[in-house]
Amino acid sequence: MIAHLQRASHTAGLLAYLYGPGERNDQSNPRLVGGDCHGAPLDLLTHAGSLPYLAHALDAPVERLGSRAPERPVWVCSVRSDPRQLDLTDAQWAEVARRVTAVTVASGGDPDACRWIALRNQPRQVHVVATLAREDGGLHNAYRDAFRLQSECHRIATELGHLPASPTPTTSAPAPEILMPITVTIAPEPTGSVVARGGDSLAKSLLNHAGFAYANDWHGPRHRLPTSMGRDEQAAISSHAAQMLRAARYTVELDPVLDTSSAGPQRGQSLGDQVLAVTDRIRGAESGAELADALAPLLDPEQGVLERVREALEAAGEQITDLADEAYQLGDRFGFASDFIVAAQSELADEDEELRRVVLPSQERAAPLSAGVHDALGAALAASPAATRAPASRDASPSAPAAAPPAGPAGNSASRTR
Question: At 406, phi and psi to the nearest 5?
Answer without folding.
Answer: -60, 165
